[in-house]
Structure formats: structure tokens, C-alpha cells
């Protein structure tokens, strides 16, 4: 490991203690490294603007930072146990290449300031991806809702056959859900889009840092004004980002549950693309919907990450090393969450309905609600209509299409409001 910036003369660093303090930092910081380089470039520009660096020194630093980024992407530079973390690796590389000029990059910063801005940029990038994937999912669902609006599908309450539904209603529900999820991701992105760079350890520094410049250079919408609040927001912003992700993954869990049921032999309503199932290692007759099941499981990781950060935040104000563990939480949440969401649009686009099984699951009792409402429209008080419609002798199998055509309450049957959903979806652009 390279020399530690904070090491004091005469104090020996204990290897076991240092290993515990570093934890998984080197591995996790690989995820944030390019964003840390980007923030270091902006910080160097700010130092030049206040006279800490001259134009030549800034040019040298920016050139070496660009080379480091290229080397990292190409695998020529590996962030490993030689370094305490990603930030010390950047500084070590700049010192190696530029000597005293490299040593100036840390002026006016703390390691906490560095990871705070790097993870903030990373969260912005991930929320942008969440919003895009939710929008893509909503697009597929809405397209299929329009195409399959009148395709009959049994509707369930309490996991029991209840009424005639349609593929259109099923698709439209997911379309609206993922429009909302995309909107929430975009709104959360707008809320956390605040620049913490230049807050140091939460109390500022004795330099007139050009924080307005770094805000613009890094593409933040606004400056996080008070340095002390930058510390208070760490964890709170991460939780908000995970909650936005969680909204989408929670819907994914319920959608995956539907598909788990619908693909079972007992239902048989859906055939999945073959890539989304795997063979049993024991039973030659089996094809298992493993991808669907792991998509269903993903919410557990997202919820656990949110809980982990929430427990870290039982702290007084100011910076605390406890917050180091928030890096792992957001990495695991978005790592698994985005991987699951990325599979969803293609899965939904390619799954196929088995119409014969869907129609075969419709039975006379599922028209009882229609009968009760028809009697009510004829003037029979609803309680009496309900009693009469509950009598099996009055149940008659009618066409599913007739039931759906009569379902005119807004948001159901032939009144799904798909044009409204289309307008909401388009407004996300």
C-alpha cells in the first residue's frame, strides 16, 4: 500500500487494523473510480481559478487524469491492494507522474468530500438508467395493451378466479406502474442533483473555492449550499435513490410472481422465451423459470441495502466513518436491481399468451358480478341483486368479449384510457 496521507510521524500503522478500516474500499471504488477522476478534474480547474495552480499545472493534471481514466478502462491500471482506496490511488498516480504538482490535487479536499461527490455522480447515472429502463418497460406494456386489449384473461382476487379480465388490463396496469416508476426516478434524480464538491469534511476550508464552477463543470443542477448539510445529506440521498429503484423492483417482483404462476402447468397461460428458463440438474423433464425467480428475488437485495443505510444514519451531525459502509449498500442495490430491470423489456416483448388455456380457465361463476350489476341497472337494489346473482342456477356462460365490452367504468374493460397513458409516457421524454 502506498504511503497514507494521514499517517503521523512515529505512529506505526497496524496491518490488521488498517485492513479492517479499508474494508472493501479498493474493490468498491472500482465502481466509482471514473467519477472520482471526473470530480478531480473539476476540482483542479477550480484550484486554477483561485490561483492555487497555474495554467501549465492544470493542463498537466488534466492530461494525466485523462490518461489514468483510459488506462483504467483498458485494464492497464488496476485498483488493487497497493492503495488504500480509489482517491489515494488517483493522488499516488499524479504524484508519480507530476511530483509536487500531483501533490496539490488534494488541496482543499477531504477523502470524504471525494467519495461524496463520486457517489453522487454515480447515483445520478444509475437513476438515469432506472428511469430509461422503466420507460422502456412501460412502452412495451402499453404497446401490448393496445394490441391485446380484448384478449380474455381470468382475473383473480385472493388467488381465486373472480371475474373476466383481459390481457389489455394486465398490460395496462404494468404500463401505468412503470410510467410512475420512471417519473419517480426522474424526480429523485432532480432532488439529489446537488453538488457537494468543495464541502471538505463538512466545514469548508480557508480558500475561496469556486464551487459555482465545479457545479457547472460536473453537470449538477445546483450547488449544495451549506457544507455541513452535504454531510447530513449523505445517506439520506442514497436512501432516496434506493427507494426510487425499489419502487420499480417491487413492481417487478409482483410481475414476476404473475409470470411464475402463469407459466406453471396448473395455469399454463404464458410461454416464456426459451432463454429465460433453464433445465433441471436432476429431472430431465423439467424447464425451470430461473430468471423469473431471481428477478422476483431481487427486491430483497434492494430492501436490505436501504435498511443497511438507514441503520447507519443513527448518528449525530458531522462526518462519521460509519458512512463508509453506505458504498457497499448502493453498489449491491443498483448492481442487482439494474441487472433485473435490464432483462424486463425484452422478456415482456417476447412472452406469448396461450389463448386456449386462458379461455379454458373461464367459467360461468366468473360472470356473476356482471349479472349482479345488470340486475342493479334494471332497478333491483344491489344487495338483492347480489343475493340473486350468487345463486349458481342463474350463472350462464356468455362470451368473454361481451363481458369486456360491458366493462365501461374508467380504467377497465374497453375504457382503459390508453391514450392518457400514452400521453404520460411521451411526457417523460
Q: Would you kindly provide a written description of the structure presented here, covering whatever features stand out?
A:
The chain folds into three domains: 15-107, Fumarase C, Chain B, domain 1 (Orthogonal Bundle); 112-155 and 164-204 and 231-360, Fumarase/aspartase (Central domain) (Fumarase C, Chain A, domain 2), CATH 1.20.200; 364-419, no CATH class. The chain has helices at 15-22, 25-49, 55-74, 86-98, 100-103, 111-147, 167-192, 211-217, 227-233, 236-262, 290-312, 326-350, 355-360, 368-377, 382-389, 400-406, 418-427; strands at residues 152-157, 160-166, 194-195, 222-223, 270-271, 278-279, 287-288, 352-353. Helix 2 (25-49) crosses helix 8. The strands form four sheets. It has a two-stranded antiparallel sheet. It has a two-stranded parallel ribbon with strand order 3-4. The longest helix is centred in the first third of the chain and has 37 residues, at 111-147. The two termini are 47 Å apart. The protein is 61% helix and 6% strand. By secondary structure, the protein is mainly α.
Amino acid at each position: 500500500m502506498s504511503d497514507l496521507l494521514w499517517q503521523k510521524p512515529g505512529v506505526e500503522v497496524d496491518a490488521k487494523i488498517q485492513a479492517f478500516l479499508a474494508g472493501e474500499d479498493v474493490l468498491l471504488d472500482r465502481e466509482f473510480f471514473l467519477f472520482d477522476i471526473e470530480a478531480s478534474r473539476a476540482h483542479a480547474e477550480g484550484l486554477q481559478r483561485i490561483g492555487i495552480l497555474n495554467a501549465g499545472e492544470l493542463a498537466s493534471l488534466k492530461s494525466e487524469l485523462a490518461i489514468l481514466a483510459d488506462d483504467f478502462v483498458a485494464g492497464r491500471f488496476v485498483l488493487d491492494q497497493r492503495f488504500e482506496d480509489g482517491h489515494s490511488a488517483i493522488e499516488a498516480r499524479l504524484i508519480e507522474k507530476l511530483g509536487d504538482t500531483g501533490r496539490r490535487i488534494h488541496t482543499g479536499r477531504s477523502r470524504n468530500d471525494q467519495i461524496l461527490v463520486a457517489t453522487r455522480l454515480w447515483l445520478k447515472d444509475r437513476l438515469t438508467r432506472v428511469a430509461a429502463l422503466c420507460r422502456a418497460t412501460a412502452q412495451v406494456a402499453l404497446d401490448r395493451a393496445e394490441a391485446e386489449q380484448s384478449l380474455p384473461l381470468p382475473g383473480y382476487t385472493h388467488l381465486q378466479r373472480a371475474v373476466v379480465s383481459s390481457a389489455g388490463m394486465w398490460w395496462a396496469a404494468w404500463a401505468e406502474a412503470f410510467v410512475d416508476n420512471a417519473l419517480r426516478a426522474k424526480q429523485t434524480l432532480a432532488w439529489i442533483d446537488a453538488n457537494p464538491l468543495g464541502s471538505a469534511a463538512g466545514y469548508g476550508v480557508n480558500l475561496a473555492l469556486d464551487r459555482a464552477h465545479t457545479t457547472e463543470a460536473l453537470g449538477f443542477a445546483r450547488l449544495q449550499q451549506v457544507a455541513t448539510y452535504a454531510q447530513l445529506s449523505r445517506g439520506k440521498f442514497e436512501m432516496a435513490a434506493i427507494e426510487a429503484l425499489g419502487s420499480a423492483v417491487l413492481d417487478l417482483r409482483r410481475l414476476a410472481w404473475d409470470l411464475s404462476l402463469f407459466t406453471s402447468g396448473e395455469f399454463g397461460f404464458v410461454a416464456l422465451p426459451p432463454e429465460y428458463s433453464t433445465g433441471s440438474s436432476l429431472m430431465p423433464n423439467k424447464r425451470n423459470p430461473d430468471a423469473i425467480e431471481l428477478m422476483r428475488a431481487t427486491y430483497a437485495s434492494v430492501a436490505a441495502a436501504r435498511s443497511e443505510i438507514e441503520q447507519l444514519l443513527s448518528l449525530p451531525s458531522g462526518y462519521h466513518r460509519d458512512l463508509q459502509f453506505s458504498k457497499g449498500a448502493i453498489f449491491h442495490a443498483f448492481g442487482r436491481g439494474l441487472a433485473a430491470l435490464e432483462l424486463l423489456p425484452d422478456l415482456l416483448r417476447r412472452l406469448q399468451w396461450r389463448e386456449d388455456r386462458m379461455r379454458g380457465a373461464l367459467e360461468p361463476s366468473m360472470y356473476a358480478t356482471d349479472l349482479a350489476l345488470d340486475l342493479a341497472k334494471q332497478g333491483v337494489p344491489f344487495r338483492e341483486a347480489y343475493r340473486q346473482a350468487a345463486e349458481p342456477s342463474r350463472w350462464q356462460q356468455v362470451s368473454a368479449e361481451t363481458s369486456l365490452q360491458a366493462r365501461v367504468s374508467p380504467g377497465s374493460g374497453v375504457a382503459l384510457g390508453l391514450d392518457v397513458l400514452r400521453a404520460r409516457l411521451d411526457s417523460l421524454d
